[in-house]
Amino acid sequence: MFITRFPDVQEALSRPDIFNVTYAPMMDPSVGPFMLGRDCTEINQRDKGIMRAFMRMEDLPAIRQKVRSLANASVEKQIYTQNQIEVVSTLSRLVPIQLTREYFGFPGPDLASMFRWSRATQYDMFHNLDKDPKVHQDNIDAGQEMRAYLTQLLPQRREQLKNGAPLEDVFSRLLNSHFDDSIGFADERIITNMMGTLVGGIETTSAAIVQLLDELFKRPRILKEAIDVASSNNDHLMYRYCWEALRFNPINPFVVRHCRTDYRIAKGSLRATTIKAGSTVLISTRSAMRDGLQLPAPSSFAIDRPESVYMHLGYGMHTCLGDQISRIQVPEIVRRILQIRGVRPAAEIDYAGGPFPERYPITYDTPV
Length: 368
Hints:
- The protein is α+β, with helices and mostly antiparallel strands.
- Helices cover about 50% and strands about 5% of the residues.
- It contains 15 helices and 9 strands.
- The chain starts with a strand and ends in a 5-residue tail after the last strand.
- The model has no long low-confidence stretch (mean pLDDT about 95).
- Its cofactor is heme.
- One of its GO terms (molecular function) is heme binding.
């Protein structure tokens, strides 16, 4: 069953009691019981609430400056010594991992491990529809390695804090909080949720950056406007250009759910349909964001659309935990790329047969 109309997609994503996630069999052997695989449970409500409380809104201005600095450093390191920049490895994946290290407090043993852990877990948990056993095993291996690393890091970080280290990353805030046993948020839960910051924060961000850039490059007039905005201080307008471009090629065209009981979708309309219990349901946010009954001129590029039409960061219970960070990080990285004089694609996006952009080279005019 494929759900495509805007109101029907919102209806389905608003009923996690009916349309259940199918992630637990991939998540549990890797990162352990995790909120994303536990709809309508204490783990979901408690863990999400705690993590949101420690990812403070007042952090956002500093996050913007950090992302801006990291993106600029990567561009400046390359722009004067070569005539191409490979976006995926040096910006769209790298900067989110650097932010995970510095803001979330999950440094990892090295960049290569962080890249591998992120990709392996995200691939199996959300994209392995064919149940490829190697993809699943890579996910399990990555999760076990992450857990071993964080299990070793946790007491070291706690000792640093005990000795007065002024650490303000999310991991350190969690360790400083001393949750009562009755809450059920012991060290194992902290470790699992720290793993989740890497699982959910890298590949999705990278895909968003690369795919929306590709859409901008296809539209010369819009590209020129976006480049002008990138040179201004209008953060909100930069965000609008990014989110509208991403609407044409969003991160995930659909999400998969399992229908727990018979359910009549779009009840009262001419398209009303009964979805049988046990059905696999594909809920297409991509189609919803191009629904002509909801969006005027859905094939046109328009930066004045209501915020409510965009589902890039999920909807309902599965709105991204780091949604506010993503609204800053994605436009800031794109902004720095668009500031490069004469920037243009050097080749098409290379997915290398997988679900994620693996290479996206851009070229540019020689800096003065």
